[in-house]
Amino acid sequence: MQSTINTLSLCLSLTLLPLTSLAATAPFQLDHRIQLSGAEGWDYLAVDPSGERFFISRGNHIDVIDLKSEKQVGKIAEAVDGAHGFAFAPSLKKGYLTSGKSAKVVVFDLTSLKVLKEIPAGKKADAIVFDEFTSKVFSFNGEDSTVTIVDAHTDSVLKTIKLDGKPEFAVTHRGLVYFNNEDKHTLEVIDAKAMVVKNTWDLKGCSSPTGLSADFKTRRLFSVCENEIMTITDADTGKQIKTLSIGKGPDASVFDAGLIFSSNGSGTLTVAEEISPNDFKVIQNLETQKGARTMTVNPKTHIAYLMAAKYEALDPKATGARPKIIPGSVELLVVKQSSTTN
Predict the structure, then answer these.
(1) Which tens digits make up the pLDDT trace of 152-171?
(2) Contacts with 104 (C-beta within 8 Å, 6 or more apart), sequence order
(3) Which residues are bridge partners to 129 per DSSP?
(4) Residue pLDDT, tens place only, 37-61
(5) How many Cα atoms are found within 13 Å in the side-chain-facing hemisphere of 271?
(6) Could you give the CA distance from residue 238 to residue 204 in angstroms, rounded to a whole number?
(7) Strands, E, within 163-239: which ranges?
(8) 221 contacts 233 by C-beta, under 8 angstroms
(9) What kind of architecture, by CATH, is found in domain 42-306?
(10) How far apart are CA 149 and CA 139, in angstroms?
(11) Cα dihedral sign for 215, 254, 146, 80?
(12) Run of H or E including 136
């Protein structure tokens, strides 16, 4: 009996210990910039499973950057029109990207970058994830509020789910696919095997959630919201655990080694620390560059990358127009912890 009590006490004490993270003694800093060609805009960024190549959606093509040399080593232009998201299926040696203007998912060889197939999807195909547990690809289509589900072995469409509201970023783990619903201010869960939405959870106090990331070890989901908060949700119950203040105009959210990042269009990178499954705190708001609201982190090196550019001044009389990017000003911002900086 005493042994049982001691074991229980040990387990309880361990749950109170801080989680291992990159944390907080060494702040992050903007280390350097990688200049990119062209004046096209961008959307999602992704590091491939090798941790050595970087993928950037650039309108009608994909730029592929070698992270060691920091030079462009490839390009995917065939069948791409309005590029958005990426998903990688390393076990099948394939990648998937969404071509929003042509309403397609484009399949490519992960090694050669050669386009293998085009799969019809919904209007403005945007976020995309690969669920390894079921070998299915999920394309979230913003304009017609649908999810296209693809068999990754045959690259054929299995089902289209109709949603109520606009889907945004998504993450997946062992047959469950989580995504933010921007219009309904909810977090929703798809059962990948049954191919149905099984849960819809209200994100209280969260306006227009966009970026989503997760720590599936602690079963926590991190949604960033237009009204400058990050909402932390239990991945099993949908219970709201905590909210944190972040920067203005957030887009992407990334979890890496105990830290949660929010890239904010106002020109900041919010860094929060997961101290325990129920305790989180913001440890830094790093100044980056105005408009740098998309990002990713290389999980092998823990280096963060954000996209930014400079823009031409808008005509004050123009209504609804977007400013044009100044050619030669598009850059990747490389952010490291100061202890890892040369």
Answers:
(1) 999 999 999 999 999 999 99
(2) 79, 98, 118, 119, 120, 121, 125
(3) 138
(4) 988 889 999 999 999 999 999 999 9
(5) 27
(6) 11
(7) 167-173, 176-181, 186-191, 196-202, 209-215, 220-225, 229-234
(8) yes
(9) 7 Propeller (2.130)
(10) 7
(11) negative
(12) strand 136-141
Terminal-to-terminal C-alpha distance of the chain: 55
Nearest to 249 by CA among 304, 306, 210, 283: 210
Summarize pLDDT for 278-288 with one digit per residue, the tens.
Answer: 999 999 999 99
Average pLDDT over residues 114-137: 97
CB 100 within 8 A of CB 110: no
| DSSP codes of every residue in 225-242 | ETTTEEEEEETTT--EEE
The Cα 146–Cα 143 span in angstroms is: 8
- pLDDT for residue 250 is more than 70: yes
The Cα–Cα gap between 214 and 163 comes to: 22
Amino acid 6: pLDDT: 43
pLDDT in tens, 299-333: 999 999 999 999 888 777 766 677 889 888 999 99
- What is d(CA 217, CA 232) in angstroms, rounded to the nearest whole number? 14
Side chain identity, residue 171:
V
Helices (H) and strands (E) in the chain, counts: 1, 28
Each domain of the chain, given as residue ranges in start order, spans: 42-306
Answer whether 229's CB lies under 8 Å from 249's CB.
no
